[in-house]
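Still learning. Any example?
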Amino acid sequence: MPSIHVIAVITARPGQRQALLDLFNKNVPIVKAEAGCIAYEATVDVEGAGPMQAEFGPDTFVVVEQWESMQALGAHAAAPHMKEYSKQSKNMVADSKIHILSPA
């Protein structure tokens, strides 16, 4: 079975992106140690990329993930550290969109 890719577009409340990223990044080593995690990192717009770029903007970051299987992704979503992250970040997040993808 091919791996699972996740693109999570997270928009912070105005002025909260850095605090949210700090909280997110504290969780990254724990997530990367999970069974089935291949990649997990937050990304932001590249400055000065020019007209070829459709920017997400100053309040948004995108989490790029790769998992060995849907089972690994499901375990990740249910993990206690992710539930705690959700609880701690709840008041900082304005919107989130999670895209779960497979290779074409």
About this structure: DSSP finds three helices and four strands in the chain. The longest helix spans residues 17-32.
